Amino acid sequence: MSKECALLHQMVRDLPRMKVGYNPAFVPANGIYFLFENGETAHGGDRIVRIGTHTGHGNLPKRIFEHLYTPNKDRSIFRKHIGRCLLRRDDNPFIKFWEIDLTKKADRERFAHQIDASEQNLVEKAVTDYMANAFSFSVISVEEKSDRLNLEGRLISTICQCDECHASPEWLGKWHADTHISFSGLWNIQGQKEKPLTLHELGGLSEQIKGG
What we know:
- By secondary structure, the protein is of the alpha+beta class.
- The protein has one domain.
- 45% of the residues lie in helices and 13% in strands.
- It contains nine helices and three strands, in the order αββαααααβααα.
- The chain has a three-stranded antiparallel β-sheet, with helices on both faces.
- α3 packs across α6 (117-134).
- The protein is globular.
- It starts with a helix and ends with a helix.
- The model has no long low-confidence stretch (mean pLDDT 95).
């Protein structure tokens, strides 16, 4: 998949890039985002380290903000992944509490009293700081939910199945316990075994993006 992945990277690197302090008005209501991480390179430039989308109509701007800058790991599996790696890297025993999901009322009543709120806030801040300092992103507009979900998986697989995309030795994701992340170099678990995009399909996607 090296030719396809190289073309994908070139196409996405040509898009406008955003980072902390970006104007949300530049994010389409519906689409797919591509994350780049400092120090990660492939195919002669910045390496895509995560691809994501959303399910709710018109929800892309909110979803990106939840992932990157909203201190609530139970609303973002990506934030939970980053926190896991930071805690494992630092051999921090709080990781067992970080794994607890407090979304449901019953779980809050059962577990919330066991969690040191100040420690939780410190980890959330560390995650947000890492997000703000390490990541930038680009987006493409994809209006229909079914198209977004299908394309997301095929984009992820195009990168995951490339022999030339590798994480750097210092990549934070190497601390993740799930080999889908630590071995692939992507902050994605789902979508790694979909059918990759062909050169022809990538060319069509490029033309679609250029056409607005």
